[in-house]
Specification:
single chain, 596 residues, alpha/beta, three-stranded antiparallel β-sheet
Length: 596
């Protein structure tokens, strides 16, 4: 049941504890890592001169990185044998860059996945309906994983898992698989979005987990009514209802559209089932959810104690924390198996970051308003979870939203075409921010003076200033065909969209008169520096693999710290990284007889 290495770290470390100590020291005291993981932002890439590339990187790295193919750079950091590199004389990478690549590999958790023998290697169409290939891969592997885990728990402890509680169940793809053949498990799907629950119940009808609600519909009268309506009227429920009543002989017949909420779930002996509980969780306390769980209504099974396992595929942000904490906070939760994602949605527990290098500090404080607001919340539910990470070197470990956002990247899966696409989008956005600065749409924010400063003689660097953020979001596909189309599309959106009405006045005032010639001049000026954006973004994504490892290690450490409650805790891969990059599950098993 328990893997030989409770944390899938490098075998260079003899114990998980040795790994976490070295990881914390690296994260807290490595300046270049701090720069790449939260210290710089693409938005301000060109708003100072000479810019982020030249300000942030060691001098000896620059020439090599500008001349080296970006996709080969990914291979250098991720796949090449660093002890047997072959370069022509005079073109070798600097040793300090290779040392950094070694460090990132050393501290990144191992992500290799070995498929297991499964009860259901292929989902039947009735269960997989609505799923894309990525979701099918996740459901096939995770359903089998938690089913096997529950069997192992029963074998080793004598405690049978009665229900799986799925945090943020969405459209209940996982729960539907677990409740169906061959698993036949009882699933409690906890979901806060009503439209997801409605969609899930429609899929339940297809998979035969639910029985279609009866509808009052006389087929003969229905056809007659339809014949009296135009195609447009046939789409209108009120028109259909009126037409039915006009049909001769309809009598008191009432037209009722199917109400999916009335779908019936009937428990059968030896079969699984699904119960939906609506609501958003704001902590690991599941008492209200547990009180709402219906007992098994099958003869011979009712009246059994609840022994629950909390599970989740890609619970966003703090929802992963709630799932893990549920093992500590609820007597009926006997085990957890949580795969996290969307680290950018996690809150921060300790407040604004602090750094030994003073010049790093401000860029993390004032990068944009959201960073300041979130870091000042000091949310007890946020990162880090463990006491060890919270109190490391007294100040604790902090990750701002930029670092956590980058931890959601998957550089091992990047292709050249995809990379060119998002490198181009980042380049366009960085140059547009420079245009906004030059035309007065945004202004510089000087970090050490905590406010605006119009001193034109002051030297701006990525470490002493940022610019006011302008949120643009996604644009039409055609807007990415050229830089001119991008600028025009962005300005139009910020000027006309009601969602961005706070920008309309300044955009009309500052950007209305910009000509195609001006836009082309900016593109010509900065296009030779596009490679700088490619390099920095790649190094940020590569470095952020350690950020994800840090987050996962913190969650495992939290469980290990609660040794009075938790019997075993470990982390292992459950998906193929190429199919689903967030592939690390955090598992916790409660001690026998512990009631939290």
């Amino acid at each position: 049941m328990i893997p030989s290495r409770p944390l899938p770290c490098s075998e260079e470390f003899s114990t998980p504890q040795e790994y976490t100590e070295a990881l914390l020291e690296f994260v807290q005291n490595t300046e270049i890592f701090q720069i790449f993981c939260g210290g710089v932002h693409i938005l301000d890439f060109f708003t100072s001169d000479p810019g982020i590339f030249h300000s942030a990187l060691p001098e000896e790295w620059k020439k090599f990185l500008l001349s080296y193919d970006t996709m080969k750079l990914l291979d250098l950091f991720l796949r090449d044998d660093l002890d047997n590199l072959s370069f022509e004389e005079g073109q070798e990478p600097p040793e300090s860059l290779i040392d950094y690549a070694r460090a990132l590999r050393r501290f990144s958790l191992r992500r290799e996945f070995a498929p297991r023998q499964q009860k259901l290697p292929v989902l039947p169409r009735s269960v997989s309906v609505g799923m894309k290939p990525k979701k099918i891969h996740e459901v096939v592997n995770f359903a089998d994983y938690v089913d096997t885990l529950s069997e192992d728990i029963s074998k080793h402890t004598g405690t049978e898992i009665s229900h799986f509680v799925d945090f943020g169940s969405g459209q209940n793809y996982l729960g539907r698989a677990l409740a169906s053949e061959p698993y036949n498990r009882h699933v409690v799907a906890v979901e806060g979005r009503d439209h997801n629950v409605t969609a899930a119940k429609v899929y339940d009808l297809t998979s035969k987990l639910a029985i279609r609600p009866k509808m009052m519909r006389n087929k003969k009268m229905w056809v007659k009514a339809q014949e009296t309506l135009t195609p447009e009227q046939q789409k209108n429920q009120d028109a259909i209802r009126a037409a039915v009543q006009e049909v001769e002989g309809a009598g008191n017949f009432e037209f009722q559209p199917m109400n999916i909420q009335e779908a019936e779930y009937v428990a059968e002996e030896g079969k699984g089932g699904v119960q939906y509980i609506s609501g958003r969780l704001d902590s690991g306390d599941l008492s209200e959810v547990i009180e709402s769980i219906e007992p098994k209504k099958v003869e011979g099974e009712s009246g059994k104690d609840l022994n629950l396992m909390a599970v989740s595929i890609h619970s966003c942000g703090n929802l992963s924390h709630f799932g893990i904490r549920s093992l500590i906070m609820n007597p009926d939760i006997r085990a957890v198996a949580i795969v996290g994602c969307c680290y950018n949605l996690m809150t921060e527990k300790l407040g604004p970051p602090t750094y030994k290098q003073a010049y790093l500090r401000p860029s993390l404080q004032a990068l944009n308003g959201r960073i300041v607001r979130e870091s000042e919340k000091r949310d007890p539910q946020g990162f880090p979870m463990s006491q060890k990470f919270s109190s490391y070197e007294e100040s604790g470990i902090r990750l701002n939203i930029t670092a956590r956002m980058m931890a959601c990247q998957a550089p091992q899966n990047w292709t050249r075409v995809e990379s060119d696409g998002f490198f181009t989008r980042h380049f366009f956005r960085a140059v547009l921010q420079r245009i906004f600065l030059d035309r007065g749409v945004v202004s510089r924010v000087w970090h050490d003076s905590n406010g605006q400063d119009d001193n034109k003689d002051r030297e701006a660097t990525p470490f002493n200033m940022s610019t006011n953020p302008v949120v643009i979001g996604s644009l039409r596909k055609s807007c990415y065909a050229s830089f001119k189309a991008y600028v025009r599309g962005a300005v139009e959106k910020l000027t006309t969209s009601t969602e961005y009405k706070q920008y309309a006045e300044v955009m009309n005032e500052k950007m209305a008169g910009i000509t195609d010639e001006e836009i082309e001049k900016y593109e010509a000026q900065y296009l030779p520096r596009k490679k700088e954006v490619c390099v920095i973004w790649s190094l940020m994504a590569l470095s952020a693999a350690v950020v994800e490892s840090l987050i996962v290690a913190d969650r495992w450490t939290f469980l290990k710290e609660h040794k009075d409650v938790v019997k075993d805790a470990w982390v292992e891969t459950v998906f193929d990284y190429g199919e689903s990059p967030r592939n690390l599950v955090v598992v916790g098993i409660k001690k026998d007889g512990v009631q939290s």
